[in-house]
Amino acid sequence: GVIFAPHFYPNIINYLRSNDLSTSEYQSLMARLAKEAKANNAPLLLGEYGNPWPSSKNGDKAAEQNHQNLEKLTSSLIDQYALSVSRPHFADERACWSLDNKNYMCGAVILGKQGLNGEERRFVTDVFVRAYPQKVAGKLNSFSYNFDNNRFTLKYLPTPALGQTQIYIPQMRHYSNGFTIKHSSGITLI
Question: What is the Cα Rg of the chain in Å?
Answer without folding.
Answer: 18
